[in-house]
Amino acid sequence: LGCCYVSKPERKIVLLGKTGDGKSTAGNTILREKMFIPKVSANSVTAHCERRQRKVHGRKITVIDTPGFFDMDHNDAETKSEIVKSLIECAPVVDAFIIVLKVGRHDNEVVQKFLNTLHKDALKHAVILFTFGEQLEGKTIKEFVKDSSQLQELVDKCGGRCHVIDNKYWKKRIWGNKSNRVQVKNLLKTIDKMVEENGCCTNEFLQKLEKHIQEDEKNISAVNLSPEEIREKAKEMVHEEYVKRLAGVATGTLMGAFLGIDVVVRSVVTLLTPENPQAVIQIVRAAAQNMTQECEIGSYLRAGITAAGGALCLAGAVGAVVGGVTGYKAAEEADSVNDSVTRAVADTYAKALHVNEKVQDLVSVASKDIKAN
């Protein structure tokens, strides 16, 4: 009888973590080749989203190394551009989010940010990968995690999925737990099991991005370009378009869409639907501030505010999603991008779902107002 070889599925993995915790070198360890250049500077604002891929254990693995979003306190154009780029690289689906944390004296604030920011839907597709494993000093990774209630909570919310590598001391070992080769093989097995149980991670926004990429691919002349080059060119075109279209949306909102927070995804998609999204964003933002003077809004929007059942006060208070995940005013009050994301997930998720419906109503009437004027 002949042998039947069954190829293993390709995997797309996204690295999340703080600058300095070994995120880029973890990507190199997974791919078994130095393909990412570790950031020398501690300033994550200058970092960029990067994608690399190669065959590992007989199958293609794609790793997306994101900037240090979890230590960013900025709302600038470059940060927004990199989040949009990360979203485009993730489209249409992601197999796993890998949360990279450093073994050793832990920054509890960073762990708490992960707990507050990552919604349960994202955690269903998440695995924790500890770096600097040699610093365990004889402890198992489970024993290390038990020493911190916050770490234990995060691991539990990720379904107990955690692994450990050491980018310096475990590179040459072939066997045993202190072998990167063994740990990466086990990590990929964990991802396979997770995908089998929970499926891949996607949302309406990622699907919308993929649709636009494919549309642009059809419009690109294929002369002397490979399919891979055509797709890269299409992704660049979509990136340029979306950066412009989302210029009025705060970084916290984009981070929420990147992390798959349902209410934020819906709102971003809603805001992208009109022909003139920037004008709509400005009108809805003004509405969220309860600025309803005649000089600022048209007749259609004034009627729409009434039709929306007075949702504007609610939106300003608990989660309009425009101008920062929890509303324009909340984003202004938040100390950082992370704070605005955290408030959305921890405090206002259920109410924001209701508000999102009202935002859809307002977007509809605002679009009519723009056309009428």
UniProtKB/TrEMBL annotation:
SUPFAM superfamilies tied to this protein: P-loop containing nucleoside triphosphate hydrolases
GO molecular function per UniProt: GTP binding
Keyword NADP carried by entry: no
Signal peptide bounds: none
The entry's keywords: GTP-binding, Nucleotide-binding
Gene3D superfamilies from the UniProt entry: P-loop containing nucleotide triphosphate hydrolases
Transmembrane region(s): none
InterPro entries referenced in this protein's UniProt entry, alphabetically: G_AIG1, GIMA/IAN/Toc, P-loop_NTPase
Boundaries of every AIG1-type G domain copy: 8-214
Family membership noted in the UniProt record: Belongs to the TRAFAC class TrmE-Era-EngA-EngB-Septin-like GTPase superfamily. AIG1/Toc34/Toc159-like paraseptin GTPase family. IAN subfamily.
PANTHER family to which the protein is assigned, alphabetical: GTPASE IMAP FAMILY MEMBER 4-LIKE-RELATED (PTHR10903:SF62), GTPASE, IMAP FAMILY MEMBER-RELATED (PTHR10903)
Protein name as annotated: AIG1-type G domain-containing protein
Source organism of this protein record: Cyprinus carpio carpio
